[in-house]
Amino acid sequence: MSQQVRGVIARAKGAPVEMATIVVPDPGPGEAVVTIQACGVCHTDLHYREGGINDDFPFLLGHEAAGVVESVGEGVTDVAPGDFVVLNWRAVCGNCRACLRGKPWYCFATHNATQKMTLEDGTVLSPALGIGAFLEKTLVAAGQCTKVDPSARAAVVGLLGCGVMAGIGAAINTGGVGRGDSVAVIGCGGVGDGAIAGAALAGATTIIAVDTDDRKLAWARNFGATHTVNARNADVVESIRDLTGGNGADVVIEAVGRPETYKQGFYARDLAGTLVLVGVPTPEMRIELPLLDVFGRGGALKASWYGDCLPTRDFPMLTEMYLQGRLDLDAFVSEEIRLDQVEEAFDKMHTGGVLRSVVVF
Ligand SMILES: NC(=O)c1ccc[n+]([C@@H]2O[C@H](COP(=O)([O-])OP(=O)(O)OC[C@H]3O[C@@H](n4cnc5c(N)ncnc54)[C@H](O)[C@@H]3O)[C@@H](O)[C@H]2O)c1
Ligand SMILES: [Zn+2]
Ligand SMILES: [Zn+2]
After folding, report:
1. 43 lines ligand 1 (CB under 6 A)
2. How far apart are CA 8 and CA 78, in angstroms?
3. What secondary structure letter does DSSP report for 135?
4. Exposed end of the chain (fewer CB within 10 Å): N or C?
5. How far is the CA of 167 from the centre of ligand 1 (A)?
6. Are 162 and 230 a contacting pair, CB within 8 Å?
7. Does 105 sit in the ligand 1 pocket, CB within 6 Å?
8. Residue 21: CB atoms within 10 Å
């Protein structure tokens, strides 16, 4: 028996999101239905609704969520009804080339539910990042459910499902930040502040936060930034060089997703430094750089998908650190909102004032 629940969809490119009744099928083999308790509003949801990811409208938005498994389909053994889980958008398949070579964080196999959620008239919905969690209950592949300590609050640990994990992982896993490193983070939203928190956990001694919004810079200090630069009134590259003894940072993390900030990151690195692109560009964006500078400055130019995380390893570990008081995930939650306030949360992304709005059910 399928169920009907309330959810948030993006019907057409650029149009405001709307509430709709969504039909959620019973879980098929290898699938699970999860009762969502909380779901953060990530910039990638806005990318979807603006047509910046692909044109498979209508989208079922929301992908940064935690909840409780309601039911599981045939053959599911890793999770059971009642388990508290954070949803992940890259369930490791175990069989692809990346998995078999021992690098499961590069798993390319799409491992989502094969059944579809629909509108009442049968219109098939495209769940954002294979999740779709601005929804009272959602259908996912069982591998997308990662069990974590149930004493953690859903509104907080749900953020590990995307932005905060992407940021922490961009610093620790992709950027390889180590003790004593200097790190600059361009863009201090949920993802960038995750990168700052990750750099602090890894032992970086200089952590430079760069943003165009002074409120964001003030918050960045709470996550471990040692210095801040407002890109509106300072030269970003020069400022980062000045703050690192004239050298540039060992690791620069770009968490905006724009050519101009990528270029700043490219030149703000020390020689042989690492640049990590975790911000997501849109299809029309281009970057032009002198090839001689790419050669002459050396180092590594990397992109970070989901912080190169391994949900089964990283979600429970970071939840534990949170519960031990070593990782302030509470500070990412600026406000708790209702399901019908997602559009307002998108507006606040532009006007500032929030790090993460989290829909609480
Ligand atoms: N790679 C991944 O796996 C992954 C995962 C989640 C999100 N993302 C992407 O990361 C990016 C950031 O996401 P978010 O949720 O933190 O967004 P956000 O909107 O909360 O934060 C973006 C921040 O960048 C700042 N900013 C904008 N223009 C700037 C500029 N020119 N210089 C400096 N700062 C500037 C804004 O003031 C804001 O604080 C998005 O592109 C998002 O799609 C990537
Ligand atoms: Zn795989
Ligand atoms: Zn996201």
Report:
1. yes
2. 29
3. B
4. N
5. 10
6. no
7. no
8. 10
Q: By CB neighbour count within 10 A (0-12 exposed, 13-18 middle, 19+ buried), where does 82 fall?
A: exposed
Ion ligand 3, residue ranges at CB < 5 A: 42, 44, 162
d(CA 328, CA 18): 32
* The pLDDT value given to residue 213: 94
pLDDT of residue 230: 98
| Residue 197 Ramachandran class (φ > 0 left, ψ -120 to 50 alpha, else beta) | alpha
The reply to whether ligand 1 has any atom less than 6 angstroms from the CB of 310 is no
Please tell me what DSSP assigns to residue 124: B
Cis peptide before 58 (omega within 30 of 0): yes
Q: Which atom of ligand 1 is nearest to the CA of 257?
A: 41
Ligand 2 mean position, distance from CA 99 (Å):
4
Residue 265 near ligand 1, beta carbon < 6 Å: no
Please write the tens of the pLDDT for every residue from 153-206.
999 999 999 999 999 999 999 999 999 999 999 999 999 999 999 999 999 999
Return the residue matching tokens 């970003």: 236
| Residue 52 confidence class, pLDDT cut points 50, 70, 90 | confident
